[in-house]
UniProtKB/TrEMBL annotation:
Biased composition (Basic and acidic residues): 254-263
Family affiliation: Belongs to the class I-like SAM-binding methyltransferase superfamily. C5-methyltransferase family.
Gene3D superfamilies: DNA Methylase, subunit A, domain 2, Vaccinia Virus protein VP39
Alphabetical GO biological process terms: DNA restriction-modification system; methylation; negative regulation of gene expression via chromosomal CpG island methylation
Keyword rRNA-binding: no
PROSITE patterns the UniProt entry points to: SAM_MT_C5
UniProt-recorded name of the protein: DNA (cytosine-5-)-methyltransferase
InterPro entries (UniProt xref): C5-Methyltransferase, C5_MeTfrase, SAM-dependent_MTases_sf
EC annotation from Swiss-Prot or TrEMBL: 2.1.1.37
Amino acid sequence: MIVLDLFAGPGGWSHALAVLGVRDIGLEWDEWACKTRAAQGQLTVRTDVAMYPVWPFLGKTTGLIASPPCQAWSMAGKRLGLLDQPLVHQAVADLSTGRDTREQLLASCRDERSLLAAEPMRYLHALNQHGQPEWVAMEEVPDVLPLWRQYAAILRSWGYSVWTGILNAADYGVPQTRRRAILLASRTRTAEPPPPTHAKAAEPESLFGPGRAQWVSMAEALGWGATDRPVPTVCAGGGPGGGPEPFPSGSRKTLTDARDRGAWKPQRSLVLQSRGEGAGGIARHGARENRPAGTPAPTLAGEVPRWSWSLRSNNQANATVRRADQPAGTLFFGHRANECVWVAEPAPGGTDEERPAPESIRITAQEAGLLQTFPADYRWAGNKGQQFSQIGNAVPPRLAAHLLAPHLGKTLSPDDFTLAA
């Protein structure tokens, strides 16, 4: 039996299934997402989902997953998909009866990607003739919820139990307040959202059992140490980590640029004291990327932290800015205006008027991947832009695992997703 993953991307759903002991077959068009999937050993057919035939999966598909490209609907884009909504709804209605009017409707769409949100219905209609799939899981940006409700009405008429709604990824241990429209459907069980495991504030234990844990912060996810005053360490060109800022503003930018070119070489030796190494342990200043996975970020011994760090989602006036001891806002990438950067502010009790604030620093792909709950050793293919595009468009695997576990008869363990490891 097959779990079919439409618009599989770099493997957010696939990694979640792997954690749960299941493999899927992903259909994906993007070259670099396919290469990323291949690097993880995920099964992939490189194809246009809108052109690929359904017949190879008939009678063989137990689960269908779909996260259609969201650029046409996303707040980060031009949102022409919202103007195309009537056409998409018409396509879904037609496909649910076996009528393929996509070509005519596409000619009227303002964004050619809009109709991709109707593609899952083409597969669902064909599979339904064989009494399949057993379950369905779909995810998109919040504005797609009305479309998911249309899908829900059709699936209910076919005998499915269906739930649709908006879920916040932070409520499931993702260090990011990423809100997504979700559809869950099943032929064999009552479809309902998974119980949240986390809350904005930690909940005390009660007669009903332990309360929910506090939302996971960026600092915790990145292994900086979940403190109320996270501070940076410059490592191989300006990476925030945990410690005072030893370089002035101009040096920081120079080091960052050199790191990006792969040309950075240490100019001075700094002995750092790691919070996790005990009183006698020391670690030499070096590349952030080479710090052992899972170890606390180092801090200069005896120094008072001077800077605390926040993540800014883009350079627009209304950009989301979150402190490192909070979850990130929704990560999205795609063009220069949407680059996430770390920005520094004087830490409480650690200001130094003569010391200039460090420059802002672009988030790295590994950091962005960790904030999406991909493992630190996930192998991203492509250049920086291609990697960030994949990461920003992926479903967080930790959220995906919570959505899928009930359909697979699995129970998630707190250790199934180890942060900063």
